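Protocol step 4 of 6.
Sequence for Oligosaccharide translocase (Liquorilactobacillus oeni DSM 19972) entered exactly as in the expression construct, tag removed. Do not edit the line below.
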Amino acid sequence: MKVFRNYFYNAGYQILAMILPLITSPYITRVLGRNGVGINSFTNSLIQYFVLFGSIGIGLYGNREIAFVRDDRQKLSQTFWEIAILKALTVTIAYAVFLLFLVFYHEYRSYMLLQSIYIIAAGIDISWLFMGLEDFKKTVIRNTLVKVLSVILIFTFVKDAGDTGKYILILAGSIFFGNLTLWPYLKKTVTAVDWKKLNIFKHLRPAVILFVPQIAIQVYLVLNKTMLGLIINSDYSGFFDRSDNIVRVVLSLATATGTVMLPHVANAFSKGDNKRVKYYLSESFDFVSFLTVPLTFGLAALAVKFAPWFYGAEFQPVGNAMMLESAIILLIGWSNVIGQQYLLPTNQIKSYSTSVIMGAIVNIIANVPLIYLFGLQGAVFATVLSELAVTGYQLWKIRGQVKFRELFVNVPKYLIAGIIMFLAVFKVNSIQNFGILAILMQVLLGTTIYIVVLLILRPTILKKIRSIIENYRVRK
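Step 5 output, structure tokens:
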């Protein structure tokens, strides 16, 4: 039950963290316009490279290392301080490099300085400690309050096209403040350590090994926006960002399992319980497939009319981009299970790294020609190809370790239900006037169709859901 509770905590926060900006998006896109939105997207894509290099993969590495030693409070404390100090040093170096970059890069300098708060925020981020301890409640509650505060500040202070700087400051400042609020919990979590015995740099090499795939991941998360801004203009960087935001909101329902399951699987692996590790993989893969198939087809069915209705007429190109990009919901859902819930916690880092490096290479190779030929659609297609390469390689690497029949036992049934749902919702969407009532009706229609078809096809997950509900009732 702890895994399910942590999943819902993390899923709830991930959704909230993505949805709250979306609540403000219709307002922001109309107040700042495509130019202001584009400037924020483009400058943020640049700053994320410095955040990435400053963090050197410590988020995943710290999560895993804390999970390994969490039963020994003294080792836990020493490990925490070693990793936290190492991260502070690397982030300081990254910020110095950023200041050097500004000496040569003059465009949007004031906006870049505001965006640099994200670098400082990365330096004080200790959420990996609580994730490794499987204590998601603290992170969720504190950061939820901060996110809500940021929404209030946006509606209060961002009033016209000249407030792009204020908007960036509020977004970056909320991340900084959210990370800062976790520090008071350290008193009850870690004990005093002998500072002279800390071996900070022993964590550098393993963190850098995990850093390599993080570089690759960041390439095909951010490069598209950077390239669109450089090749066409910052407006198109904003278009891609708006499409990507919606897709990532929907995707957060599935990827929340990765953060929850990584420490769980790592702890089982450290005790030599390989049978349970593979059981977790099979169960998580089926659950994520059950979720991501309807999310993929549902968003694709709504996208074309949803984007201009939600963001405004200026953002018409976002609709078709979103429809194509929705394919990555299923692909990332699968690669998240295999990569972060199996390969990483079982120390198969080389396979994980190679998969995301392959995705980055595909993205780099495909991005320039596809953007030149097809603009925004080309950037989205490059993203889909990248995720396809990552997922395909990971499946190939684990082919001898798990039985694909167990992983994919219910996937054909989910796909049949998803396709039928898509055809029905897309047809209704194309002939119906769009609005909030239409969205609710179409979501209800799609959900009903998906559930009814699954009840007919009877995938094994239905028995598991029934069992969980019955156990919950018995506990109450």
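Step 6, annotate. Residues 2-409 form one domain.
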